[in-house]
Amino acid sequence: MSEPARAPEQLRRFGGGGVSAFGEMLVVGLVVTAASLPLITMLPAIAAGVRHFDGHLAARDDSLQAFMGLVWRSVRSGWWFGLCWITVLTALGAGAVLGARGVLPGGEAYAVVCLLLALGVALIGLRSAALWDPVTGWRGLRRRGSALVLDDPVGTGYLLVGVLVAGVVVWMLPPLVVITPGLVVLAIVAAERRRRARAA
């Protein structure tokens, strides 16, 4: 269920109605970063960021108070989803490092396989987060997110570019890591809006 649209004068926008999408992306990046510090809350925080940013573009209530409410509801209901996601990513990342160092059988080939699997898990998690709804919750989202990775290759490409750009930004200027989740959220919203437009 989506939030009802409101007239511009009724919205309690963070910073006023003149805040640009770029400014909202920075706000989303900061809030998602803060909410992701326990790590297991990273994916639920991203899901709330996607919901909030999409609401901003659709002229729904995008106040900071409403955003924090979304973060709380997403984390409270989806921490287990985030725990599974980050645990699998950590295990695959460790396998890639150990393989690259020759500690595990297969060496570099094993490391490449682990990296590819980690990329797939990351994309499934992000596409699943894009589908989160405060009413229906997290159940069944992994299956739907997995299907979207292959069924919507262009949208998945958006996500890959968003993650790549975020990685380059952090590589060039590490302190900007606090806003890079906003770039990832922007890519997810772009992919979802394109998918919904094509399905309409």
Can you describe what's shown?
About 6% of the residues have low confidence. The protein has 7 helices and no strands. The longest helix is centred in the middle third of the chain and has 37 residues. The two termini are 16 Å apart. By secondary structure, it is mostly helical. The protein is globular and about 55 Å long. Helices cover 72% and strands 0% of the residues.
Write the layout of secondary structure elements.
Layout: H1 21-35, H2 42-57, H3 64-100, H4 107-130, H5 141-151, H6 153-172, H7 180-199
Helix pairs in contact: 1-2, 1-7, 2-3, 2-4, 2-7, 3-4, 4-5, 6-7
Please supply descriptive tags for the structure shown above.
globular, about 0% strand, mainly alpha, about 200 residues
CA-based gyration radius: 17 Å
β-strand amount: under 5%
User: What structural class results from the helix and strand content?
Assistant: mainly alpha
The low-confidence parts are: 7-18
Q: Outline the biggest β-sheet.
A: none
What does the average pLDDT come to? Answer: 87
Number of strands: 0
Strand-and-helix sequence, N→C? HHHHHHH
Shape: globular
Cα distance spanning the termini? 16 Å
Q: Helicity, in percent? A: over 70%
Q: Count helical runs.
A: 7
